[in-house]
Amino acid sequence: xxxxxxxxxxxKELRFHLCQSGAASGSLRSFITKSYPVMxxxxxxxxxxxxxxxxxxxxxxxxxxxxxxxxxxxxxxAIGSAKPARRIGEGNSSRTLRPLRSRD
Length: 104
Prior knowledge:
- It is a single chain.
- By secondary structure, the chain is of the alpha+beta class.
- The chain contains two helices and five strands; from the N terminus they run βαβββαβ.
- The chain has one domain (2-91): Glutaredoxin (3-Layer(aba) Sandwich).
- Helices cover 24% and strands 20% of the residues.
- Strands 2-1-3-4-5 form a five-stranded mixed sheet, covered by helices on one side.
């Protein structure tokens, strides 16, 4: 299990957005509870951010460089607690990176 969370050197940040009490975020909450200690132990230099807000759909963002991010999968509501690990491990090989929008 430890090797599963040895992230690529290109990964700069991992961000989880979820609802504190919503049923749709239950599997992501469970995944974070079980996997965060191992992820952080194996990747101490990578920021792992957890943002909770009422009513937001569960999403996982992976940032791979100074201005590029892997867009969230719109179908995260239907994934189980084991699937986020598989998706994070896939890296950027299956999706196209696009520039972040500025917030000016």
